[in-house]
Every structure is written in C-alpha cells, then in structure tokens.
Amino acid sequence: MLLSNSGYMLYILDRIIDIIYFFLFFQQRNRKSKQTTLQSCLKSIKGEKVFPIDAEYTSDIIDANTRVTFKPAVIIYVANINDIQISVKCATKLQTGIIARSGGHSYEKYSTGGRDGVIVVDVTNLNGISINSKKKTAVIGAGNRLGPIYYNLSQKGFLIPAGSCPSIGIAGHALGGGYGFYGRKFGLASDNIISIDMINAEGNLTTANAKQNSDLFFALRGAGGGSYGIVTSITFKLSPIPEIVTSFIFDYNISNVQQVFDAVHKFGAKLTKDVTFAVVISSTEFQLLGTYLGNNQSARETMQDITTSTNPSAQFIEESFFESVVRWSYVSVDAVRDPFYNSSSFKAKSFFVKLPGLSKAGIQSITNFIQNQPCSSFAMFDLFGGGAVNSIAPNATAFVHRDELYGIQLYSTLTGQVDVCLNNLKSFGVEFQKNYTSQFSYQNYIDRDLVGWKHKYYGSNFRRLVNIKSKYDPENLFSFPQSIPVKEN
Ligand SMILES: Cc1cc2nc3c(=O)[nH]c(=O)nc-3n(C[C@H](O)[C@H](O)[C@H](O)COP(=O)(O)OP(=O)(O)OC[C@H]3O[C@@H](n4cnc5c(N)ncnc54)[C@H](O)[C@@H]3O)c2cc1C
C-alpha cells in the first residue's frame, strides 16, 4: 500500500522515536548495569560511598570553584588505606578513571575527575596529625586542611609553611608546591616534605623519600597532584614558630602603582628572608600585605626603604604566629580551626616574573585590565625573590620555578557578564604572558586553557616527570586533562 506524503512523514517520525527510545533504554540499562558492577566491586569498602542516585551526591560534587562541574561515578569517603586499595583495584578492573580529592580546591575541578564517570577517592577521613616534637617532624594525613594543620602544629610550637586559605587540602596543595605568607623564610610546603606514603597504580602502599623511590619523591614534590597515585600521608619537617610576628598592611592610591613597583623591584629581593609580602591590586584597593618574623620595631626598620620611597598609609600589627594565620585567612578563628568551603565561580591566570620585574608598560597593562574587567578581579603579586624558594635548584624537585622575583595570580570572580569576563581573561592572559612575563605558570593555579602547560608548569623537569610516570603508572590509570602523561607528546 502506498502512503500519502504526510502519512509517510508520520511513519518516519514514529520509527525515529522508536530508535531514540531503544537507544535511551539501552543506555540507561547499560548505565545501571555498570553501576551495579561498580557497587558490587566496591562492596567491602568501609567508608561511605555516594552514588549519583544518592541525595547527598549533588552537594558532594560542589567544591571551591562552581564554574565547572563533573559527575563522578561514585565518591568514596575512604575510611582507611585498604579502602583506597580496593578502589584502585576496581578502577583497574572496570577500566574506570580514578582520582584523589583532598580539599577540593582544584581550579579546574580535577579532583572530581576533569571528566564524568570517574571514581573519586576523597581522603577527608585520613586526617590524623602525629607530631614528634623531639625529631621536629609531623606525619600529616592527606585529608587534613591547612587551617587545622596551622592550629595543631602551632599549639605544640611548630609550623610548616603553606598557603593562607584554611580550607585548602594539604595533599593537593603540598604536592603542587604551596606558597604563603611565611614562604620567603621557610620555602614551599613541598620543600619541607621528608617522606610520602602513596597507594600506587597496582594498589600497593609505596613510600617515597630521599632513600626509597627517590625518583617518585622528586616527582611528588611539585607534580604530584593526581598524576602518580593516591597519597595517604605526608611527613613534614617542622620549624619552630617565631615568638612574635608583625603583620603589615600598606594602603596606596592606585595612581602610585609605578612608584610602588619601582620600590618592590629595587628592594624586594634584598630584604631579609624574615619578610614575606604580596602586592594586591583589586578593582577597589591597592595594598602591600606582609609578615615579618619579629617585633614591630624591627619590622618598621626592615621595611623602611619601601615605606620611605612609597609613603603608604601603614599599619604594623604585632601578634602571635597563629593570629597572623587567622588574619591572612580573612575568616574567623573558628573557621580556621574548622574550615568550610566558600564556593564561588572563578577563573584565574598565573604568571611569573624574573628580575628586574615587570616593565612600566606591563604594570600599566595589568592595572588597566583589572579596572576595566566587568567582573570583580584582583592581581596578587607574591614576592619570591631572595627567599628560600629560590635557594633550591630547579631540578632538585619537580617544582621548577626557582628563579622568579614574583608570581602573579590574576583572578576574576565570575558574576554578571560571565562570558565577556572569561574571554577577556583568556585573551589578556595570552598577550600579557607573551609580552611581559617569564614563560612559566604555577601548577597549583591550574588552568585548562593554558597553551603549552607542560613547559609552563614543569619546564626542563617535564621529560623526567614523564619517565617517572611511565615507570610507576604505565597504564596511565591516574589521569586527568593536565596530568603528567606516559609519553612526552
Ligand atoms: C580559595 C583558594 C585559595 C588558595 N590559596 C593558595 C595559596 O595561598 N597558596 C598556594 O600555593 N595555593 C593556593 N591555592 C591553590 C591550591 O594550592 C591548589 O588549588 C591545590 O591544588 C588545592 O589542593 P586541594 O587538596 O584543596 O584540592 P583538590 O581539588 O582536592 O586537589 C587538587 C589536585 O591534587 C590532587 N590530589 C588531591 N588529593 C590527593 C592525594 N591524596 N593524592 C594525590 N593527589 C591528590 C587532585 O586529584 C587534584 O588534581 C588556593 C586555591 C583556592 C581555591
């Protein structure tokens, strides 16, 4: 029987609907059966497992940055090392990706996989801190956040240097570097690591230190976030906290921007290591913020060259070490001891600048950018020059950035004209790096759009990192969009 034109169209439409229906049906069945297989493989895990069907799933995939979202196959709040071993074995068996999450601050949400369908091993419950005051060491569980670490160590008279945001996880942070307000004196968090325990791609507990698996030890101190295995604990060398510190805040008018950078370029790298500071240009403020490890009087004398030549409205505040930690966290003391996320949608770019510092045109260019960007933005210039980070050879650990005067983080909070802000940031970042800065960026401010990231994050260490990856994880089990690959290209 011949069908009329419209009858024929209806017939075709009907068949298309059937095909779509069957496709969705099989896809769902496939998904369900994959989930059942995964559930049964993970059944002996002691920690809590959160699957996409669970009520907590939606909130549990929200981390520090809400700009990106990935949908993991499961989030496992591992209770112990054995849980990680089971997770790794299941990921291998079922050929599912697997990734570690510590504090969830990855700028690109790589700790939820950087793609959908991955097993997330959340190490929050591995939160022991064991301090050996005699040896001046601490074994810190990979699930600890910086706030409680600063608090617990300082209670016993010790510190490790690290960043200022209390909710950052120690593992993601220290495995990529970790710089903060005590960094010119004590270096990076990663520079203070003595030993690392990690579950490798075979599901075995491995120790990396100067004597055991020293190649892995090299890689984990700067390129360790997510690429080589799941770190369970890190042993740090401790430093005694100073008896007193002086925090200082210099306020300027943005019209003095060149004058302030002239002083930073001239005096910054010559300052005693007891000083660490950052210059911050935001849409509303222009400040130099820092810490001096000593009393108020010495702080004023130490900073005199800069204050005399820039004439700020200056405050010097003498306080305890932990009070300064709380100050630079910009949250309450309770929120330092027991941190929580302050999630927002953001995007950032990272640059490094060598001596003699940015040119006048470079300073003007970044200042103009911040003032004209429609989203609230800031640039933070962290002084490295003359400090402990620069006294280590670039090939001693995977952290290659050892010859920089300062690192710059350019950060936009994405509200309002989000696409315009993102595009502006992207194109500005490319031009600014090409014209004014060194060709490097900080791997802890990871940026999926960064062209040439292998060189920019790891420089001359990259080839060595690839070789180590191919030795310890030849099947590339631990992978995400900017993980260390098993082959150079
Ligand atoms: C608000 C904010 C403030 C910041 N301030 C600073 C600062 O002052 N100084 C500074 O240096 N950096 C700073 N950072 C950057 C921060 O150091 C990085 O984002 C860091 O990677 C976060 O670690 P995390 O454990 O919290 O994040 P996660 O997202 O959990 O992890 C980051 C990466 O490390 C991997 N990883 C996590 N846990 C493990 C593990 N157990 N084993 C192996 N790999 C693991 C993840 O897979 C991921 O690839 C800041 C970030 C934010 C969002």
Descriptive account of the structure:
By secondary structure, the chain is α+β, with helices and mostly antiparallel strands. Among the domains are: 129-241 and 460-472, Uridine Diphospho-n-acetylenolpyruvylglucosamine Reductase, domain 3 (2-Layer Sandwich), CATH 3.30.465.10; 245-458, Vanillyl-alcohol Oxidase, Chain A, domain 3 (3-Layer(aba) Sandwich), CATH 3.40.462. The protein contains 16 helices and 18 strands. It has helices at 5-41, 57-60, 81-94, 146-155, 170-174, 183-186, 214-223, 257-267, 296-302, 304-310, 321-329, 333-337, 360-372, 418-436, 453-458, 462-472, and strands at 48-50, 74-77, 98-101, 119-122, 129-132, 137-141, 158-159, 193-199, 205-209, 230-237, 239-240, 245-251, 275-282, 286-292, 313-319, 346-353, 377-383, 406-413. The strands form 4 sheets. It has a 7-stranded antiparallel sheet. A 5-stranded antiparallel sheet has the order 5-6-10-8-9. Strand 13 and strand 14 (286-292) form a beta hairpin. Helix 7 packs across helix 16 (462-472), helix 8 runs antiparallel to helix 10 and helix 13 runs antiparallel to helix 14 (418-436). The longest helix has 37 residues, at 5-41. It starts with a helix and ends in a 17-residue tail after the last helix. The site of flavin-adenine dinucleotide has 33 residues, from strand 3, helix 5 and strand 10.
